[in-house]
């Protein structure tokens, strides 16, 4: 991929004396892990002396941190790349990062010659070198600097320490990759094999985040509850052990984790929900379908009954837990009866909140070659029925909190004057107007009203500033 041509691709803008970009802007698509990766890329570039631009238009390096999970997400990347060209024909240096970079590699540079850098999710610690390589590429060249190596976890050791955070709630990737190979999913191919980051590195990163003003940490992993590691005394620990240690960090008020697999929901982790007050009462536990036949074809390695048994145990330990999930409608071969089984499991589990998607065939995954792909019309209609049911459950969950006193971590400014938006323990958005409060405060509120997506609260008392 090092051929140079004299085609008319405008060169990247080269604003500083040496010609390297000065201001970066990162746009992350897809999952929370991409948000985490995007933040770490930004922190690394800032550590190199670059500045974060306020808007994409002001940046001379734009990083599109992409998602490959569904076809729509991929299409957005290419339309975004097209929109980066300025009216005068110039363009910023463009880096495509994330899972599309991993899955499509050189193909991106072929399809979109204005792309200067292609960097996979396990290689972004080498962005500075790739920027330098791209900068040295001849003016008007079609050459892109590409790195889609997948060495397990070396990137974390090569990244700078965490910077002061702009928000009170932060993500922390503890586990990455997936060995489960659900037949619809690209993650094992784009994020690679399952790895757990070392215990001591995570405790150190969490402490740095808290020192930098963070009060809530969400532990991330594609199979976060499969995290394993040896603690500082050499004892083997599961995720609950890591959570218990993080809970001892003074100033860390709240801990969450996502996304979990039903088969890795151990009794010890379930017990942690009853025992560790900082662990919030919220569990994202995707089931994908309620039909055992479809779950088998998806290679989920659990059935509807075993999923519901896990939920029962979790609710026995933590009766008020808010349950969340992911669903796919229209997996190849899904009959109306299979879909009814999905509606049944939703009724049985009762979700506080959930995500639902139409099946999207992903190149290279086994399900993409399965017979009996479902028509878009049937998928649309099933998705609508499922979302109606999930929406009603979510609204009912929210309505049940009206009149209750609850604790809110204030995370961002609202649109109305004086309005602040925070999260309840159950991850609901709560709007409050409290002139005495500021972002990062933990306050007690009374819930006055509930909508489908948010709650209105009246401030009662400041808990900790
Ligand atoms: N089509 C539709 N949805 C998918 N997901 C993963 N792969 C696909 C696909 N090919 C959904 C699953 C998963 C969530 C992150 O995205 O529900 O839990
Ligand atoms: Fe998208 Fe999955 Fe990659 Fe996250 S891990 S960016 S959801 S494909």
Automatic annotation (TrEMBL):
This protein's cofactor list reads: [4Fe-4S] cluster
Task: Identify the residues that bind [4Fe-4S] cluster 2.
Answer: 178, 182, 185
- One Pfam family named in its UniProt record: UPF0004
- The record places domain TRAM at 399-461
Residue intervals of the Radical SAM core domain: 164-396
* Protein's job: Catalyzes the methylthiolation of N6-(dimethylallyl)adenosine (i(6)A), leading to the formation of 2-methylthio-N6-(dimethylallyl)adenosine (ms(2)i(6)A) at position 37 in tRNAs that read codons beginning with uridine.
- Protein name as catalogued: tRNA-2-methylthio-N(6)-dimethylallyladenosine synthase
């Amino acid at each position: 991929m090092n051929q140079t041509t004299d085609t008319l691709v405008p060169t990247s803008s080269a604003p500083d004396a040496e010609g390297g970009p000065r201001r970066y802007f990162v746009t992350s698509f897809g999952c929370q892990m991409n948000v985490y990766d995007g933040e770490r890329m930004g922190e690394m570039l800032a550590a190199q002396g670059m500045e974060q631009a306020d808007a994409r238009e002001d940046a001379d390096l734009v990083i599109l941190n992409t998602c490959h999970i569904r076809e729509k997400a991929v299409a957005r990347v290419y339309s975004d790349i097209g929109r980066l060209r300025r009216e005068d024909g110039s363009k910023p240096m463009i880096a495509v990062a994330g899972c599309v970079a991993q899955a499509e590699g050189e193909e991106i540079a072929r399809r979109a010659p204005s792309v200067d850098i292609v960097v996979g999710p396990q290689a972004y610690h080498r962005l500075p070198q790739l920027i330098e390589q791209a900068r040295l590429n001849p003016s008007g060249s079609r050459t892109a600097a590409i790195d889609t190596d997948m060495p397990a976890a070396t990137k974390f050791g090569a990244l700078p320490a965490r910077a002061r955070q702009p928000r009170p709630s932060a993500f922390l990737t503890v586990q990455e990759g997936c060995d489960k190979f659900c037949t619809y999913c690209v993650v094992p191919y784009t994020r690679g094999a399952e790895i757990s980051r070392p215990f001591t590195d995570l405790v150190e990163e969490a402490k740095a985040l808290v020192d930098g003003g963070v009060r809530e940490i969400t532990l991330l992993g594609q199979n976060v509850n499969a995290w394993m590691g040896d603690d500082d005394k050499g004892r083997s620990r599961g995720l609950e052990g890591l959570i218990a240690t993080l809970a001892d960090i003074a100033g860390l008020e709240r801990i969450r984790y996502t996304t979990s697999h039903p088969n890795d929901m151990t009794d010890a982790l379930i017990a942690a929900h009853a025992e560790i007050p900082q662990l919030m009462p919220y569990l994202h536990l995707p089931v994908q379908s309620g039909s055992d036949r479809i779950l088998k074809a998806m290679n989920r390695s659990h059935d509807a009954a075993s999923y519901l048994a896990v939920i029962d145990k979790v609710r026995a330990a933590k009766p008020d837990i808010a349950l969340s999930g992911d669903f796919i409608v229209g997996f190849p071969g899904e009959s109306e009866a299979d879909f009814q089984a999905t509606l049944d499991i939703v009724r049985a589990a009762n979700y506080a909140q959930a995500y639902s998607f139409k099946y999207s065939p992903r190149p290279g995954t086994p399900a993409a070659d399965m017979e009996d792909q479902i028509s878009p019309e049937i998928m649309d209609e099933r998705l609508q029925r499922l979302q109606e049911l999930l929406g009603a459950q979510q609204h009912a969950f929210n309505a049940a909190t009206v009149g209750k006193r609850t604790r809110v971590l204030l995370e961002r400014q609202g649109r109305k004057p004086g309005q602040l938006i925070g999260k309840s323990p159950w991850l609901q958005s709560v709007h409050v107007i409290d002139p005495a409060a500021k972002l990062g405060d933990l306050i007690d509120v009374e819930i006055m009203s509930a909508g489908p997506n948010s709650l209105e609260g009246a401030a009662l008392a400041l808990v900790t500033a």
